[in-house]
Amino acid sequence: MKAIEMITSGFTQKPRKVVKTGDDSAASSLLTYVRRMTGWHQVAVCTLAAFVALLNLAPIELQRRIVNEVVETRDVAVLVQFGIAYFVIILMHQAFKYALWLYQSWLTESTNGYTRAHLLTL
């Protein structure tokens, strides 16, 4: 039961607290709105997205190496090692992709909640 609680604990994160500016004016541009709502989290999301994109290239490189080295030498031990590495890379890619999705969803829900609450006070 502890494992399920650990996995689902990410779903119960409280929304991000957005600093209030003190006035009811709208943001002057979309960039200002995004910066106000997400702050430095936007940089972290972009960094994580770039890492996921780079990690997406790893299976292609590994497939190339499998074809070049294993097919020519016909070494089963090397094929098993490449297979395990391929499996680990795919799992890492999916885990980071899921973390990116959770992070983006958390920021989106925080922004939506703040905007709705702000609009209700107008």
Written account of the structure:
The protein has 122 residues and is an all-alpha fold. The chain is built from 5 helices and no strands. Helix 3 (41-55) runs antiparallel to helix 5 (76-121) and helix 4 packs antiparallel against helix 5.
Cα end-to-end separation: 45 Å
The geometry reads as: rod-shaped
Element-level helix/strand string = HHHHH
State the total count of DSSP E strands: 0
Radius of gyration: 22 Å
Q: Per DSSP, what share of the residues sits in E-state strands of 2 or more residues? A: under 5%
Q: How would you describe this structure in keywords?
A:
single chain, rod-shaped, 5 helices, mainly alpha
Summarize the structure.
The chain has 122 residues and is mainly α.
Topology:
Elements: H1 2-8, H2 30-38, H3 41-55, H4 58-73, H5 76-121
